[in-house]
Design brief:
Elements (H helix, E strand, L loop, with lengths): L1 H7 L13 H12 L4 E5 L8 H5 L3 E6 L2 H11 L4 E4 L12 E6 L8 H13 L1 E12 L10 E4 L2 E5 L2 E4 L3 H8 L4 E8 L3 E8 L2
Length: 200
Amino acid sequence: MTEFWEENFIDKQEMWGFEPSKSAILTKDFFLKNSVKNILIPGIGYGRNAQIFKENEIDITGIEISKTAIDLAHKNYGTDMTIHHGSVTEMPFDSKKYDGVFCYALIHLLDKNDRSKLISDCYNQLNKNGYMVFTAITKNAPNFGKGKPIEKDRYEFHKGAKIFYYDQESLKAEFNGFGLFEFNEVNENQPMYLIKCKKE
């Protein structure tokens, strides 16, 4: 995954622009409604989805594998965000507990063991009554079933780009043990699930 990311995305730098995703806007509203004061963003990238939280006085800590993306985030959005340099598979990077976690379009890039570890690691870094929100690509995506099959519902359609496509069954199987209470479909550049969990 690291090699694919570096070769295909970082060279294009701010390829998704500076507007936040629909999911980030919806999650910002949800976090504000539930008095979330600080959040962890695994896979923060160059920060386009972080800014909307920052603008609403939510303290942000990020994790990002690409040093180039971290430099861009600091250049575009200021140096007051803590961003740990490393892979989400190496979490945790600190012992801090957070009111919220927002993980956008990342979990489906991982294999089964790493998906399970990421969900567990994020949950473990939540305060009691904290929330975590993930987005994950669904089987309604146009590329589902295309490319080289890796495992059930996971395909490599470009070299290094291995995508797991969720349905309701797999979503519940992976998130039910971690306070899953709601999921909805949201159309980004691909059809996604917006998945919400609460730590009781």
